[in-house]
Amino acid sequence: MEGAPSRTPYRLIATQVSRHRVAAVIAFLVVLPWLTPSHALAANILIFGLYAVGFNLLFGYTGLLSFGHAAFLGSGSYATGVVMVHYGWPWWLAIPAGITLAALIGLCMGYLVIRSRGIYFAMVTLALGQCVYFAFYKAEAITGGENGLRGVNVETIDLLGWKLDFQDPITKYFVMLVFVAAALWFVSRLLASPFGAVLESVRENEKRAAACGYDVARTKLLAFVISAAICGLAGALRALHLSIVPIDSLHYLTSGQVVMMSLLGGMGTFFGPFVGAATILWVEDVATILTKSWQLVVGVIFIIFVLFFPRGIWGSFLHWLGRR
Amino acid sequence: MTDLNLLLLQTVTGIALGSVYALLAIGLSLIFGMLTVVNFAHGAYFMVGAYIGVYVLSATGSFFASLLAVFFSTGLFGLLTERVLVRPLYGRGPDYPLLLTFGLSYVIIDVIRIIFGVEGLQSSTPAALQGSVNIGIGYFPIYRLFLIAAAAVIITALWLFIEKSRYGLIIRAGARDPEIVRILGIDVAKVWLLVFGLGTAIAGLSGVLAAPIRTVTPEMGIPVLVESFVVTVVGGMGSIGGAVIAGLLVGVVYSLTALYAPALAELSIFALMALVLVVRPQGLFGREGLME
Amino acid sequence: MSETNIRRRKLLLSAAAAATTPFWINSVRAQEGPIRIGYPVPLTGPYAAEAKDQVQGAELAIMEFNESGGLNGRKCELLVRDTKLSPGEAATRTLELIEKDKANFIVGSLSSSVQLAVNNVAKERRIIYSSISQSDTINEVKDWSPYTFHEAMNPTMTAGAVGRYVFPKYGKRIAFLTADYAYGHEMVKGFQRAGKPFGVETLIDIRHPIGASDYSTFLPRIMSLKPDILFFCNFGRDLISSIKQAGDFGLKNNTRFVTPQLTLTARLAGGSDVFDGVIGGATYYWRLEDTVPSAKAFNDKYRKAYAGAVPSDFSALGYSSVRAILTAARNAGSTDSDKVSTALRQLKYDFTKGPEYYRNCDHQAVQSVLVIESKSKNMKDKNDVFDIVAIEKPDESHLRSCQELGHKA
Questions:
Q1: What pTM was estimated for this model as a whole?
Q2: Does a structural domain hold residue B261?
Q3: Which H or E element spans position B209?
Q4: For an interface test with A, which of C79, C92, C123 has the most A Cβ atoms less than 10 Å from its Cβ?
């Protein structure tokens, strides 16, 4: 109180965390593998957290609800896998290939959908996402079709003579973390830039943004492509993590999953998507081992959060911190 | 069988398929148009309807009794859902009901698994409607003809209710402008409750009608949900006439694609949706500006 | 390598330590303590009933192994994990089983894509994986490894046996209704391969999306062609729905319905009317006990353990795959992947259905194939639903040759 509430320790933590948000997220991710029941789960959280961050750039910061983002996660995975399996590319060259294909598909899809709004935007992205799904499904000779792509195998990573065992789960995790950290830093810089401000103004009021002289359609398209590229990176890492690319990475349920993760974690917050991804995957992982009725557990948690914590987990936490 | 007959038979098949789509989409469209709630649990109500229907049919032996039982039980279930879970979310934007009904569908599916087991139930066609009959262009299952007729009856009844009754008038007015309706002294909350119940009751009915030709399993509502979303969007969200026409259209498009390029059948309905939306972003009969 | 050593390595992320032990997994996998078998199966989702049988079969084999003293006193435990029928989930669970639970062997799965995912993860880490789900691809050199075993039948032998039975009996003009994925495609190839010597004519092969809920739109065209035999190359609920709907259209009147894999689980879920007269292949059917002593012994043990229930195809596969691995481990006196792999290659066994062995080049279990017909009359009890109409003896000549699969020998 006394006119300086920002000096209370809670507010201070909140301000510090949001000021150094990238550092805070990375600090969390560094310790994550020792917190989760298994290293494989930690890696999944890392990948899906990045996927949710990419999605949230469009949903949380630009206000566009896409139901087709699996197209980017999946095409990133497939491009990475295909160039490694069929063309023998090294893994470090395969990752940019994944990002590039995802961004290209994002550009084509974005060009078609940018005119639509609201629920229709969601539905066109769903439809186009399904078209991408079928394209990969039918290209059986390259993608393996329903069987998925196998053999995305990396045994050791050679860094200028420094050999890393990529099959060691911890090594694998930290190699992937380097990429995730770079992407997070990029997103954070982007949001802090003038472009980030334009994005938020488009979300708040499209007409006013246009009246201010911003090219709304181009801004949206650019956000769409960047979002796709980040999800593509997540996909590329997933291919390396699992050593396979399952066809369901392109499925609309995978698109739905990321929507749920962002909403549950807190859309429009930097860390929220990661929290959402971690919560869903963690709860599913534990509940699946404990009971066959894991969907019941997950469903009830969803309902409770929607009813009582509408800002999402991280959003509610920040709100609570802010009020102290 | 001549090619023309095959084409006609394929079209009738598509209409039978489309009539289930239409019924499902009407419920979704009603709920969305009035409440701006995207009901992700719609497929779960469809599945619950099928389960209750098969259960009542095997207990009583009367198909008609099972239809009535399903209409009222899934309707009541819908009323409860709206009152307890959805109502607190009004005014918070469409994302929250979407997330809630998604969670609810998980719960419903698992509760059904716990009660009835994971294997699903055996469902058979009512004795009087078994077999196939020559309809001039080839043999066609009697039950599917009944399905078309039943859907027509339900849709007509619903149309009369909405166009001719006093409640229907309020529903239509509420969909246009809930503010005005409230100012006129009508309890909008009650109307919304009724609409949600009606939507889920119709979903349940389509479940029990589809049960004899499909396998009744806890997961049967999942693919159906996406298909009915496609139909609703093609028809224009909130438009009941649009839902019916789009339902039949999607059924026929699927069926004709299945005839000439079966591998593309599943893709065809999504391609249709993408095409419609790129050309006409609000759907065939939708109003502009919803949910922006 | 000691525990503290591992921990330090993890903390330091020391590349040097990793480089000196490139195959860290085998080196830390315990050669004492309980033997762990990781068992990823689809406990939830459409194949939950089949998965339950798979688990019961495996548990029976483990119970027997433990009661008979284990491996020099080392007992075995089964780590069942839910794949949710998703290859991504299955890969994650397999990583967990190998990395965290230190599973010595992996067995299980029920779908083409899931088994290939599990196999890829296991083989990279040199862990033996025995698949109990149909697939031709897993035999091929690209996916195969010395640690890959295939206990289930493959589409070539299944469709082959069924085809050789039905073509002379029911006719040569055939049509397919095929689920559009590897399982379906491989079965079609299997039937066509078997049909060549008989001169069969494929009128149409309709591919339907996997998991479709309505098949009516694919049926009028098939009806107009009036085939002698309609092959349903799909599985589980797809099979039940499509057979039921084809029956409603009156197709059964002039056409014989055949499916490559006719399972007890599907038949019980679909009912006798839907399946009446349908012919199909099977890994196992409990009435085999009338003629095969090992089947009788297996059924009796199973009935005793599970309150009178009879084993299904999936119970039998779960049982024999786990028992084969544990027997091989005993023969090798070790749980080391290479030693057990060698012992498995030398194994001749008869656990449920007569003699079997793993072919050396691709580790495919060479076994008899049952051809069964669904009946609706003369049933002894509720599980007496099929007649065994033919049994094709184990015969390597019915498999694709090793060269055809890309193997050297």
A1: 0.89
A2: no
A3: helix B188-210
A4: C92
